[in-house]
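Fold Annotation — chain and its backbone
Encoding — discrete vocabulary of local shapes
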Amino acid sequence: MSPEVTSPASPSFTRRAQAGWPEFDLAQRSKPSREHLRVTERRLAAALGAARSPPNGQSRNGALAPPLRSHSSNMAESETLESVTEHERILQEIESTDTACVGPTLRSVYDDQPNAHKRFMEKLDARIRNHDREIEKMCNFHHQGFVDAITELLKVRADAEKLMGQVTDTNRRLQEAGKEVTAQTEEVIRCRIQQRNMVTTVEKLQLCIPVLEMYSKLKEQLDSKRYYSALKTMEQLEKIYIPRVSQYRFCQIMAENLPKLREEIKEISMSDLKDFLESIRKHSDKIGQTAMKQAFPPLYLKVLTAPDLVDFSPVYRCLHIYSVLGDRETFENYYRKQRKKQARLVLQPQSSMHETVEGYRRYFNQIVGFFVVEDHILHATQGLVTRAFTDELWNMALSKIIAVLRTHSSYCSDPDLVLELKNLIVIFADTLQGYGFPVNRLFDLLFEIRDQYNETLLKKWALVFRDIFEQDNYSPIPVENEEEYRSVVSRFPFHDTEIEKQPFPKKLPMSQSVPQIYTQVKEFIYASLKFSESLHRSSTEIDDMLRKSTNLLLTRTLSSCLQNLIKKPHIGLTELVQIIINTTHLEQACRYLEDFITNITNVSPETIHTTRLYGLSTFKDARHAAEGEIYTKLNQKIDEFIQLADYEWSMSESDGRASGYLMDLINFLRSTFQVFTHLPGKVAQTACMSACKHLSTSLMQMLLDSELKQISMGAIQQFNLDVIQCELFASSEPVPGFQGDTLQLAFIDLRQLLDLFMVWDWSTYLADYGQPNSKYLRVNPSTALALLEKMKDTSKKNNIFSQFRKNDRDKQKLIETVVKQLRSLVNGMSQHP
């Protein structure tokens, strides 16, 4: 019975596969090679035989089956014994070597002799036949067992089919019973999938929710304008949260929006900064006003600082935002540039600032407010502004401030306004000095303004002095009782023992202007002292400033007022005399002004560098000017009287009495010199001597006037009477203090000239001319000649000597002779000057 070839689905095939038996491809059996068919057949028979053979190599009948390896080994041994050739060795290697490594062995066959492969093929065929015989023997030996196995297998087939039916039915019933389980299982699977998806979703949401929460927080911070916190949130989103879920589209959108939000924050913060800068410019006035008020605050007053008045949060916020964004330098440059522009605007004054103190106060308040803000920014921020930047701003501002104050203060003509300006500058300087800004140049400027202040004071006091002089009556002060006397001496340091002993009512020698002038000088010192206060100067410097300003008042203002007063046309001799008396008392009061300044400054006048008051020279100069004006006005008055003279120069004889104009003149001089009793002695004597000399000179000029051509002897006699009255006036001592006939010597020239013509003593004159003891020593030949020629012409015209015909020639000859001699004397004087 030929064995059946098992299909791959047969149980035997399955068992072989499970037992690890080698599988044979059925397609190989269809090949025409006999060797392959024989090998396959042998191997299948050997496999079936091995399957049926009992274990340990026993047969089903209990006999041991001949081992396949032993038979082939016997053959091999027999062949080995026959001849161990190279081919045998190669065949053994082929049989014992893995198929992948048989190549080198086969190559050795072709490496031998040329016909070696034929002999090898013969050996190989012989070996194959041997193996085929062994396979056939083995198959014959196991064939019965194979048949028995097939028979038993056929018997089992029915049971297997029955079992297969039962299994199928069981499977059907199981499938029907498992449909619900399957459905539930599918539902469970679906739920498990949903659960897994939900868990995954939750896990992803747990990653996304913090991102969304942070983004929501960012939006809230932006809405509430907490931009610095928003930037921090953005940084966390970018660095921490978004990278965790960067694969999602919404995160990509967030990441794209963050730079836009940063730019929006920058724009908003910059807009807030601009609003802050605009607001701070408007509030600088109030900030500066508060700071200047608190430069020296009372103890009970709460000190306000810049943050109390201004909200600096926009600056801090913008600074932090730009710092976080890495653009701090841009912000710093922008802030400094804008503040420089604002500084220039603040430093630009109004054109009418000099008109009122409020204009200056507003100007200073704005500047102080500006630098108080900068100082706060300097200390509250790190590097937004530096000390070098604020110093640069301050130096620029200081130069501008000084230039502005120089210009506008020069327009101030009111000393009170200048004083208020000075006080504002001091408070301004002290306030900024408290914030660490150098202000020495401001105090130097105050010294310049102080000079201008003194100029305005001098102008103001010049008006005061003029009003005093205009309202003065230039008469001694009447004092009715002790109270009035004390009132005067309390205003002016007057002490006179003789006057104090006089009973009331009495008169003080000076006029009302003296105590008023003295009081105003003290007021000037007080006004000047007000400017020197708070300048941080020593007492010596203040004393020096007061003395210098007082000297300017005395030597320039008061002196100028006195000079103008003296030159006024309506000021007469009486007023001039009173002015001299007033200046004398003011001169004496200068030492009291010295003491007054010393009491104020507590600086001893004996100090080496102490400036002395120049009031003595001022009043002396004024007095000298008044004296000169007295002399001038006296001479003018004398000239006015002389212009009233109306001599009849051709009269034959005199009236026997002095001329009326001359008597009026003498009476005027006498009454005037009586007023001079209060003047210093030398002044009155000088005035009297000057008046007499001027009168003598005027009378002499009247005689020698070139327009006067003829003078009669009678006119000479009348003129002589007038000169006699002048001499009588001089001898009456109108002003005490002259020694002997000193005052009469003013008329000696006229006296000798008139005596010469009255006596007709030409022989003596000509004989004694040039002698120191000459009787007519004061008569000049030219003067005598001029007058004699006037008389000679008169004699010819009026024919005075016509009744004395016999003596006429002699008289004429004498006159001609005297004229010739006088001319020779005049010529001699011209040749020998």
